[in-house]
Amino acid sequence: MILKSFISTNRIRILRKKNWATSFQKSLGICIILGSLICLTVAPSAALSSPKWGIYVGSSKDLLTSTKILEDSLGNKFENVLYYNAITDDFNINLANQVKDNNKHLQIILEFFDPNLDTDQPKYRLSTITNGDHDADITRWANQVKNFNDIVYLTPLSEMNGYWQTWSGVSNGNTPSDFIPAWRHIRDIFTATGTTNVKWVWAVNAVSVPNIPSNSPNVYYPGDNYVDYIGIDGYNFGPPDEPWLSFRNIFMPMYQKISQTISSTKPMMIMETACSEAGGDKAKWINDMFYDLSYSFPQVVQVNWFNRNKERDWRIESSNASLEAFRSNFAVKNNDISPTTNSTHSPSPTHIIKNNINSTHDKQQLDIKETIDSTINTDSASSENNSYSKSEKYLSQNNSINETTMIKLIGALIIFAQIAAFILFRNLKEYDNNRKHQKHLKKT
What we know:
Blueprint: H1 2-42, E1 52-56, H2 63-74, E2 80-86, H3 93-101, E3 105-111, H4 126-130, H5 135-146, E4 152-156, H6 179-192, E5 198-205, H7 217-220, E6 229-236, H8 247-261, E7 268-275, H9 282-295, E8 300-306, H10 320-330, H11 359-379, H12 384-396, H13 403-443
Parallel strand pairs: 1-2, 1-8, 2-3, 3-4, 4-5, 5-6, 6-7, 7-8
Helix pairs in contact: 1-13, 5-6, 9-10
């Protein structure tokens, strides 16, 4: 009888140990599965971003020829062609068809102004758009675009947060509150005409000038229902007028502001960008740009390079080193490729061509420069040396996970550790209860 009781007691003990071990193994397995799911959830943000590329090379006369020559030297094709039109122009259907035949899409910046006049043009105030003064031109554009059998990326009233524009919220008798009704009025006319082949790109300058709350980008945003893409314009002018700025320093402050205050999911475009040769290493700037676009700007799906020799030599082929830097990065991208105005267009941030401005704009340019320098020092370049040294360190480490992804992974590990600790504590408690029960059996 005693032997039978001893065997029964030890059998229970062995079974309980086995049950505890099995329970722990199952719990550990669940913990591993949960941890894996969490890591898989955040892992996609570590993947490389590969935005499409567009190009602006100038007038319609040599647009495709110049683009083809540049593509041959780069070993890859641009997917979009950027072009500028005044609202008084006609939609260039011949150019659009040529672009389409070359397996590209047309991106148009539609400007409401007289290109031969100064910024102060009462005829083109934002209120005149809302009040219907330009409905005939807008309707004509809508019907002409509707008859084109492909998508057109359309950007009306770009860089409204810079006072050099006729449609700026702080110039030409406009107020920031005038902008949204004007933008919506333009799109509503396209909708009313049944024009459905337009993708609407709302684009701001990378630096608000003046940099005041009433001129902040979110003041001008017409709403998700009216915007398909968000664009940012920015250039590295470099010395002597401005400090040498990396792509990251130019775009990251505005990119983050838009992500935090407007939309963290709306796809973005770098609508216009380029780099000067003077004042720094343009080839390195280009290399760093491609790297940062891959790892630090996940919302950016499209980049357009302003390839003209104007107030700076913005061209990719401005030097052999610049060309090779762009080619070495651009050539590895996927090769699959799913103008009538002569208006003088100049890149942001100043958006003013020194060689072609009058005495009134000379003073304005000095004001713009002071405002931009002050803004850059406040928003991003106050720590230019520190920021750039951090960027260089970040690049030299060849870290393939950006800051956002790292934060997510750390969070996932913390959650994983909490789950593991909870399960371990629960099983240890169960084990302790078993031991107490076994001691009680011995006593009885």
